[in-house]
Write a structure and sequence with these properties.
Elements lengths: L19 E6 H5 L6 H14 L7 E6 L1 H10 L5 E4 L5 H9 L3 H5 L4 E5 L6 H9 L3 E6 L14 E4 L9
Parallel strand pairs: 1-2, 1-4, 2-3, 4-5, 5-6
Amino acid sequence: MQTRRDHRPAIRPYVPPGRRLHLVDIENLAGGSGADDATVRRTLEAYEMAADVHFRDHMIVACGRTLARSAFFSCRPGIRRLLGRGVDGADRALSNAVSPIGGAISRYHGIVIGSGDRHFARIARQFHLAHRSVEIVARPGSLSSGLDLPAYRIIPLDLATNTAE
């Protein structure tokens, strides 16, 4: 009788326990490219609180040119910033940042996707199939099919509880 081998990629030995990758489409979370500076800042703060971003985690924020200045200056040091171009440019920039997916899976214990966009369903599924945790942070009512699976932890982004200072 042949036994089935476990094909999940091993976590690399240098990876700290619990390290997660955060992919944040700030345009999606802030409600569009027309968001003002205060909304972008509040959205990033609310995301970090909702997702419980830890110092060992890696965070990548992407947006289009319209929100770039506001988003990039609102990011704290250590956050990687990506500029997307065109329709779904931020989505593509974030996807390319984790390509090839196998390399990303071996460096993180889980992924947190800051977007309700269906574009990220493939990435979430790959992490899930590799037995990594998958969390989705999205605005209420903006979660696309493919990201609403019971195996994923869904975290609603509530901007009302986080006020700008």
